[in-house]
């Protein structure tokens, strides 16, 4: 019997299975910065404010001066933001802030409601500013929908990497953002996350395979959802299938599943977890269990703005002199 359930082409955003809601994948080849953290290039011909068309290899998204996503609200789920390349400037309605990237991960629980902005500062003025980022929306169960908001940094230096070699000596590297493998365990997730309970078997891994490398994924429990997103490379083979890049592979996690890479380095994201199994009602930035709860979220946001916005602008960015850092609501600051 085949371990592969389904293979489908990737769209935008990537479709995911419970307990995940979706994954947004961003790869932008930003030009040199203009000294004000924006692009040193003309913005003519772009739909500023809604620039989602890849033009000259990059997009402004909702940004007008600096690419990114100015202040917007969330309720009822978590964002896990993996910044493999480039930088992200975070600011939120709790007064928390940060600059992270180049392998760092931010795990944010929106809970009962938060506003945050995610801007992409182009610090390099002499060279280009490439960005490669995943933002995964992980649902919260009904019992935790209205917990206090929380954000946590998983710094690149703290995230374990498992390196394996096949019988020919070809290497596969697996970065453990959530979950565990062999004797290595990912950093703890945010405290109210579905990922906290090991019985839920949440795994978020990024995977890099050398050309011609072969790797067999470890089995997990029946009833767990597991998807492998092949986002960069040429092609892989698995069982009787030849699969080109930009495809999702949905597999049975309790059966052995081996992939063999082709002649080009290949990159994957793996998402795995026990389904929450509750009704999901989504409306833009709100994810609840019923339409009534969605209406309540909209009304409360209109009345309170989830605490308001304490920063000078909705597209707030941090000073060019700042390195990677995290400022927490209690005033604690960590600099990297």
Question: In short, what is this structure?
Answer:
The protein has 336 residues and is mainly beta.
Explain what this protein looks like in three dimensions.
The chain has 336 residues and is mainly β. The chain has 2 domains: 1-12 and 159-278, Jelly Rolls (Sandwich); 20-154, Jelly Rolls (Sandwich). The chain is built from 1 helix and 27 strands. The protein has a 7-stranded antiparallel sheet with strand order 1-21-18-23-16-13-12, with no helix packed on it. It starts with a strand and ends with a strand. The relative contact order is 0.20.
State the domain count. 2
Helix/strand-derived category reads: mainly beta
CATH architecture of the largest domain: Sandwich
**Strand order in space, largest sheet:** 1-21-18-23-16-13-12
Keywords summarizing the entry:
336 residues, Jelly Rolls, six-stranded antiparallel beta sheet, 27 strands
Topology of this structure?
Elements (H helix, E strand, L loop, with lengths): L3 E6 L4 E2 L4 E11 L37 E7 L2 E9 L1 E6 L4 E5 L2 E6 L4 E6 L9 E11 L10 E5 L6 E5 L5 E8 L1 E2 L2 E2 L17 E7 L4 E4 L7 E8 L2 E4 L2 E4 L2 E5 L5 E5 L4 E8 L7 E3 L2 E3 L2 H14 L20 E3 L5 E3 L1
Antiparallel strand pairs: 1-21, 2-3, 3-10, 4-9, 5-8, 5-10, 6-7, 6-9, 7-26, 8-11, 12-13, 13-16, 14-15, 16-23, 17-22, 18-21, 18-23, 19-20, 19-22, 24-25, 26-27
């Amino acid at each position: 019997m085949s371990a592969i359930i389904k293979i489908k082409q990737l769209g935008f955003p990537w479709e995911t299975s419970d307990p995940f809601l979706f994954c947004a994948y961003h790869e932008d080849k930003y030009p040199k910065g203009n000294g004000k953290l924006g692009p040193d290039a003309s913005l003519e011909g772009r739909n500023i404010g809604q620039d989602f068309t890849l033009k000259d290899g990059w997009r402004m998204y909702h940004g007008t001066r600096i690419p990114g996503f100015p202040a917007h609200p969330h309720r009822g789920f978590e964002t896990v933001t993996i910044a493999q390349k480039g930088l992200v400037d975070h600011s939120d309605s709790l007064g928390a802030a940060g600059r992270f990237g180049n392998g760092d991960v931010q795990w944010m629980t929106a809970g009962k409601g938060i506003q945050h902005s995610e801007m992409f500062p182009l610090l390099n003025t002499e060279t280009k500013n490439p960005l490669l980022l995943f933002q995964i929306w992980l649902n919260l169960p009904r019992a935790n929908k209205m917990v206090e908001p929380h954000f946590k940094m998983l710094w690149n230096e703290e995230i374990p990497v498992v390196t394996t070699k096949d019988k020919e000596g070809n290497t596969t590297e697996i970065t453990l953002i959530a979950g565990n493998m062999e004797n290595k365990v990912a950093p703890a997730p945010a405290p109210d996350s579905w990922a906290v309970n090991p019985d839920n078997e949440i795994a978020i891994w990024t995977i890099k395979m050398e050309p011609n490398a072969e790797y067999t994924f470890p089995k997990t429990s029946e009833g767990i959802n597991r998807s492998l997103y092949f986002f960069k490379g040429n092609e892989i083979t698995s069982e009787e299938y030849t699969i080109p890049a930009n495809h999702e592979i949905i597999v049975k996690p309790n059966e052995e599943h081996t992939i063999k890479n082709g002649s080009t380095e290949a990159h994957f994201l793996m998402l795995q977890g026990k389904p929450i199994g509750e009704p999901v009602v989504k409306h833009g930035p709100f994810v609840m269990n019923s339409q009534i709860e969605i209406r309540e979220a909209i009304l409360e946001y209109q009345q309170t703005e989830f605490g308001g916005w304490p920063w000078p602008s909705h597209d707030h960015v941090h000073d060019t002199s700042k390195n990677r850092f995290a400022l927490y609501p209690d005033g604690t600051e960590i600099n990297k």
